[in-house]
Fold:
Amino acid sequence: MESTQEMTVQKGAEIELSVDSVSFGGQGIARVNDFVVFVNGAITGDHVLAKIIKKKKSFAEAVAINIIKPSIDRTNPECELFGTCGGCRWQDVVYGAQLEFKRQNVQEVFERIGGFTDIQIPKPIGSKEIYRYRNKMEFTFGDRPWLTANALFDADRRSDPFALGLHVPQRFDKVLPVRHCHLQSTLANDILNFVGDFTRHSGLPPYSVKDHSGFWRFLVIRESKRTSDLMINLITSEERPEVMTPFRDQIISKFPQITSLINGISSKKAQVAFSDYEVLLHGSPFIIEKLGDFEFEISSNAFFQTNTLAAETLYQIALEFAELKGHELVYDLYCGTGSIGIFISKFAQKVIGIELIEASVENARKNVKHNRISNCEFLLGDLRKTIRQLHQTPDVVIVDPPRSGMHEDVIDTLLELAPPVIVYVSCNPSTQARDLALLCQAHYRIDKVQPVDMFPHTYHIENVVRLVQS
Structure:
């Protein structure tokens, strides 16, 4: 039977709540007796007036409509679009507090999901830059702009069917016009505005997700942080040389720093900035980025960590956890484009990477050749089958799976392989904790843990774990 206080937690009700912690999804956690309320827009230490938007048997969800007494960890956000754009949900939280929230989140999922009650999670290593840290940004064209409160009073902007910017959270039919993003460089913002002005006055419409018509689809800016390379990929629904030729001439004249200018063509209905094929308008079809002593060729569709400086930190931790002496055989599972395997290659005798995606393996092999590395091999195939075909026992296995974690069959194969050391790099500590529990139920134990923050102002956190045989 519900208590009197719990009965006040009903959908549509407005109640005062004191937030005592933050969930892994970035929501504040408050309690009415022992009944949990997740509060969007609230952090630890806030006292808020919140509106209940969903009520379940064991918890409720709410949104903060007024912060009665703010947490001491609050700060003023840099971006004028904060609160509307969903990219930086914690931009109004001091960075040291963000790191502590992330540490607590890793601690909580390791205890709750993994059952690791005796492990103390250390403070995450922070990003060297908390603004302008991204080496890649994707912007969307749309015919249904999302208007901020100020724009609603501007008649011209209310009637404008053209937008270049970012999607509003949970509204992929709406595009929030963006002219300045604090996650990319000043140069990238200048290019964003130039492209927006050119396309707006081109006479051609932006793409509509409603009827799948229109010409302009996406703008992707990739900017190396370690070299001077800069790629612009303007994705359209079809080839129009009479439009793209003057665009090329004008943008190169305005921004001679551009080393790669691409017109990607995408006729697919899916709203992803991935082209069917490309037309190279200027320069090289790829850019070069550096991690440590190595250079990586990055094509327009290739995956690469979006925070270069933090990626170096992440890979350095993985290398330290591997404790390589120079004689080891290392397996790099879910190797992607080979960045981790290449980064550690000069400290091992042999590195074998395995990946299921063909394009990623091709990029990894190109990067091996580009860096003149002789002790790295990258194989295309299913992890379980390919590992068994190798008929070798590695000294160290490094795994860096997607957010969904490792499949149970892969974990079983890993246990059969029984390497002395496993280094588990994860972008999702929840699924990592689940997988670690299975490994530790067998014959492994956790030796070291270190979170690394690659995405300031978000709740996302990378986590590196060293496992040794128990």
Q: What stands out?
A: The chain is about 25% helix and 30% strand. Residues 4-69 form a domain with the OB fold (Dihydrolipoamide Acetyltransferase, E2P) fold (CATH 2.40.50.140). Residues 139 and 165 are 5 Å apart (CA to CA).
